[in-house]
C-alpha cells in the first residue's frame, strides 16, 4: 500500500470540501512510496520525526502547517537551516508528510472537536449533534477552579491561563476555536458570546489579550460568573489527532498506526 492509497482511503470518508484551495496535501515525500506505518500528530516537530523513525512508520499525518505558513509555501525557505535540515531528515528516512486540516474541520461533527470532547469527558454534554469547531457544552455546575483543574489534568497541561473568579459557579462552556483580532465584527463575537446568558466560560485556542481579556476581567470584577480559560493552540487541538490515529487504524488495519503528540512547545518559569 502506498502513502497515496492510505490518504485515498481516508479521503473517501469525507464529503467533498465546500471550498477550493485546500491546504490538505502532501508537504514532503513521494506519495507513491510504500507506506510502512502512520503516525499522527498535531504539528510536525523534529522529535516527532525521530519518534516516527523509532516506530518504523514513514507517513506522518499532521493537522497544522509543517513549514511555518498556512499554505506551506517553501520558496522563501531556500537556504533556511531549519527547513533544510527537516527536509534532509524526512528524505533520509523516505518519509512523507500529509496535512489533514480542512477535512477534519469541515466534517460534522468536527473531528478535532470529537477528540477534544472525548479527552475532556464532555461528549455527553455537548449541545449540538453535528457540532463544528465552535461548540457549546453544558456541564454539571462546578467552580472555575475545579473546571480549570479538570482541563489541566485531562489535557496534561503544564499550566493554563485563566481570567475570572476561581470560586465562580460555571456550567456553560463555549469551545470557540480561534479568536483572531480582525478589526471588524469577528473581534466582537467572543465578547458578545460571553455577555449572553448561554455562556459562562470562553475556552478558545487563543485569545486577543488586548480586547477580549479586559472584558472578561471587568465582568468578573463586577461579580459576574464569567471567565476565560486558555490552554494553548496545540494543547487544545492535539486530542483531535489522537482521534485521527484511531480512525486511520480502522481504515488500514494491516498497518501500524500511532499517535505521537508533539507536546507543549513552551516551558514555564
Ligand atoms: Fe489549529
Ligand atoms: Fe485546527
Task: Name the features.
about 270 residues, binds fe (ii) ion, Udp-n-acetylmuramoylalanyl-d-glutamate--2,6- Diaminopimelate Ligase, Chain: A, domain 1, single chain, 2 domains, five-stranded mixed β-sheet, alpha/beta
CATH architectural group of the largest domain: 3-Layer(aba) Sandwich
Radius of gyration: 20 Å
Give the overall shape, derived from the CA principal axes.
elongated
CATH class of the largest domain: Alpha Beta
Going across the biggest sheet, name each strand in turn.
1-4-3-2-10
Q: What is the name of the CATH superfamily of the largest domain? A: NIF3 (NGG1p interacting factor 3)-like
Give the CA-CA distance, first to last residue: 47 Å
**What proportion strand?**
15-25%
Q: Please give the largest β-sheet.
A: 5 strands, mixed
Number of discrete domains: 2
> Which structural category do the helix and sheet elements fall into?
alpha/beta
- Order of SSEs, N→C? HEEHEHEHHEHEEHEHEHE
Number of helices: 9
Uncertain regions: pLDDT < 50 for 5+ in a row? Answer: none
Describe the fold and architecture:
With 269 residues, the chain is of the alpha/beta class. It folds into 2 domains: 3-106, 3-Layer(aba) Sandwich (Udp-n-acetylmuramoylalanyl-d-glutamate--2,6- Diaminopimelate Ligase, Chain: A, domain 1), CATH 3.40.1390; 111-233, Udp-n-acetylmuramoylalanyl-d-glutamate--2,6- Diaminopimelate Ligase, Chain: A, domain 1 (3-Layer(aba) Sandwich), CATH 3.40.1390.30. The protein is 36% helix and 16% strand. It has 9 helices and 10 strands. It has helices at residues 3-11, 46-55, 81-92, 102-106, 111-120, 144-154, 185-195, 212-221, 233-251, and strands at residues 26-28, 38-41, 59-62, 96-99, 135-143, 161-163, 169-175, 201-203, 227-230, 257-259. A 5-stranded mixed beta sheet has the order 1-4-3-2-10. Strands 5-7-8-9-6 form a 5-stranded mixed beta sheet. Strand 8 (201-203), helix 8 and strand 9 (227-230) form a beta-alpha-beta unit. The termini are far apart. The mean pLDDT is 95. One fe (ii) ion (FE2) binds at residues 64, 233, 237.
Amino acid at each position: 500500500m502506498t502513502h497515496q492509497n492510505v490518504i485515498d482511503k481516508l479521503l473517501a470518508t469525507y464529503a467533498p470540501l465546500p471550498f477550493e484551495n485546500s491546504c490538505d496535501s502532501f508537504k514532503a515525500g513521494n506519495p507513491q512510496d510504500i507506506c510502512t506505518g502512520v503516525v499522527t500528530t498535531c504539528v510536525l516537530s523534529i522529535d516527532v520525526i525521530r519518534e516516527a523513525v523509532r516506530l518504523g512508520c514513514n507517513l506522518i499525518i499532521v493537522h497544522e502547517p509543517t513549514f511555518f505558513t498556512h499554505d506551506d509555501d517553501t520558496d522563501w525557505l531556500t537556504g533556511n537551516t531549519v527547513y533544510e535540515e527537516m527536509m534532509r531528515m524526512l528524505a533520509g528516512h523516505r518519509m512523507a508528510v500529509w496535512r489533514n486540516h480542512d477535512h477534519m474541520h469541515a466534517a460534522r461533527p468536527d473531528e478535532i472537536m470529537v477528540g477534544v470532547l472525548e479527552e475532556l469527558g464532555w461528549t455527553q454534554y455537548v449541545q449540538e449533534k453535528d457540532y463544528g469547531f465552535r461548540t457549546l457544552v453544558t456541564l454539571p455546575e462546578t467552580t472555575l477552579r475545579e473546571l480549570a483543574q479538570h482541563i489541566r489534568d485531562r489535557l496534561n497541561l503544564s499550566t493554563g491561563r485563566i481570567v475570572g473568579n476561581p470560586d465562580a459557579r460555571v456550567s456553560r462552556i463555549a469551545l470557540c476555536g480561534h479568536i483572531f483580532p480582525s478589526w471588524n465584527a469577528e473581534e466582537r463575537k467572543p465578547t458578545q458570546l460571553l455577555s449572553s446568558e448561554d455562556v459562562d466560560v470562553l475556552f478558545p485556542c487563543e485569545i486577543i489579550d488586548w480586547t477580549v481579556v479586559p472584558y472578561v476581567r471587568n465582568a468578573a470584577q463586577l461579580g459576574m460568573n464569567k471567565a476565560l480559560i486558555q490552554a494553548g493552540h496545540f494543547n487544545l487541538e492535539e486530542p483531535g489527532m489522537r482521534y485521527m490515529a484511531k480512525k486511520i487504524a480502522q481504515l488500514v488495519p494491516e498497518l501500524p498506526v500511532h499517535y505521537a503528540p508533539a507536546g507543549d512547545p513552551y516551558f514555564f518559569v
